[in-house]
Design brief:
One of its GO terms (molecular function) is hydrolase activity. With about 250 residues, the protein is α/β, with parallel strands linked by helices. It contains 11 helices and 7 strands. The chain has a 7-stranded mixed beta sheet with strand order 2-1-3-4-5-6-7, sandwiched between helices. Helix 2 crosses helix 3 and helix 6 packs across helix 7.
């Protein structure tokens, strides 16, 4: 009996594995789907503070333990996309296909030092229903997932928030990324900030088997706002078919 390919989904910062529920429903028949909660998030909110390196190490260990010669597809969004980049950079043979959605790889240390004093002051807002609702609307989170998003916001620890911002805004593309063996698809929202588009371009140009695309009409919300397009794009890329026509090549 041929075992299914493995599909690993890595969520964004401040949310957890529930963000991939609809994608899992689409892919679970053909793939073994793995959707971990990253360190400091979701079911692991009280475990310890977030660490990019430790998170990547956990994913590498899990894949090495479970792949057993199977095709591995790595899919990351935002913070999870940075971790996916790190996984590919540390272990070039670990995945066959990777989808990198909205990954920041151009460091903004000045922004971190600017917002760091403010974060402890704004942290209490993450526990307020009205603020959570505003953030959910901004991110395009569907109403049926609001309960999960609310729970994640209320459980997020202050130290995790600080560490997450620090690592996110200091992250830069490792020089070993170009050695990854995977075919790589890079996406960024048309309405995202310029630094995100430049990051997507940098990732695309840094790897010989990377293709980069801009998703029209959206910001940092691809996986929530255009779920069908997201799914169609992944299926097409895996099967090496033409990607949906509405995507704009970087």
């Amino acid at each position: 009996m041929v075992k299914k390919p493995i599909m690993v989904f890595l969520h964004g910062g401040g949310v957890s594995s529930w963000m991939w529920q609809e994608q899992i429903e689409k892919f679970k028949e053909a793939y073994d789907c793995y959707t971990p909660d990253l360190i400091g998030h979701g079911t692991r909110a009280n475990e310890k503070s977030f660490s990019m390196r430790e998170s990547a190490g956990e994913i590498i260990s899990w894949i090495e333990q479970h792949a057993q010669g199977r095709i591995v597809i790595l899919i990351g969004f935002s913070l999870g996309a940075q971790i996916a980049v790190d996984v590919l950079s540390r272990e070039p043979d670990i995945a066959d296909i990777a989808v990198i959605n909205s990954a920041l790889v151009r460091p903004l240390p000045w922004l971190y030092w600017m917002v760091r004093p403010i974060l402890p002051l704004t942290y209490p807002l993450l526990k307020k229903e009205w603020f959570i609702q505003l953030q959910a609307e901004k991110l395009g989170i569907p109403s049926q997932a609001l309960g999960n998003y609310t729970a994640d916001s209320k459980q997020l620890q202050k130290e995790t928030l600080l560490t997450m911002f620090q690592e996110n805004l200091h992250y830069k593309l490792p020089h070993t990324f170009q050695q990854a063996k995977a075919r790589i698809l890079v996406t960024v929202g048309e309405k995202e900030k310029g630094i995100m588009k430049r990051s997507a371009k940098k990732i695309t140009h840094a790897h010989p088997k990377a293709e980069g695309f801009i998703v029209p009409g959206i910001g940092h919300t691809f996986t929530f706002e255009k779920k069908e397009l997201f799914t169609d794009m992944i299926k097409s890329f895996i099967e090496e078919r033409a990607l949906p026509a509405e995507l704009k090549e970087i």
